[in-house]
# Entry
Amino acid sequence: MDLKHSYSVKLNDGNLMPVLGFGTFASEEVPKSKAFEATKVAIDVGFRHIDAAYFYQNEEEVGQALRDKIADGTVKREDLFYTTKIWTTFLRPELVRQCLERSLKKLGLGYVDLCIIHTPFAMKPGEELLPKDASGKIILEIVDIRETWEALEKCKDSGLTKSIGVSNFNHKQLELILNKPGLKYKPTCNQVECHPYLNQSKLLEFCKSKNIVLVAYSALGSHRDPNWIDSDSPYLLEEPILKTIAKKHNRTPGQVALRYLLQRGVVVLAKSFNEKRIKENFQVFDFELTPEDMKVIDSLNRNFRYSKMSFAVDHPYYPFLEEY
# Structure
């Protein structure tokens, strides 16, 4: 991936994905209007890759922002790369298309550029995003991810999405799909948590060997939503080593964290609804970390995961018990 000449990577289906994406997830207390404003700012700043999901419940607002920016001539639809995700309550093959169509309707778009399976494990279908039993435990169910994948392949054939991929899959789950009899399309990407504390070097190596792009979420550490993240989790951007390297390059620790991943051939999602930080997050193409910098940041890896999704730990498709 030559960052100087092209800010995109070619996927295994021939489509281009911008290497830096704007993340739109926000916890419940953030007003939905924030996603609308921030997405417009992101496009004005230069972001062309927008990462969203059915689960985020703000696709109306994000879609409106995209349509406004197309209408005012800032971008054309084909300049944008929009990702949505099939939520875990829609993994039964007969529900996959319905989830994607709901997203398209909210967005007011005719197609998305990428549609991915949000997690390998499924939850009970229905209107609740997080279906729970009487004792408050999330209700999981078992759906064969190969069948979910086949349904996603049909969505691509129908023109509802240009590319298809997965998220939160370990290498064995990727292999399940890659080795599936009658496979029509390989996953183009695997979107996983990835940052200096969890650098995913083995999974990255595996994905590269299969021509699958690794896309990083929580690249700047994580939002602190107590529903998903332990409150005693470390703050990545307070890491002294990142601060030292940032100072040397006259950059922010966040810019260093993003640049580190880009130089490893990872596509990076940067999430912020703060205008100043959205601008900063896009300024990662005009400086370079040295091989020494890269080595020092590599040494920060401690396989620390912000988003453990431990409620699904007993599910046979729970992805994080494998080393990678």
Summary: Residues 8-321 form a domain with the TIM Barrel fold (CATH 3.20.20.100). The chain has one domain: 8-321.
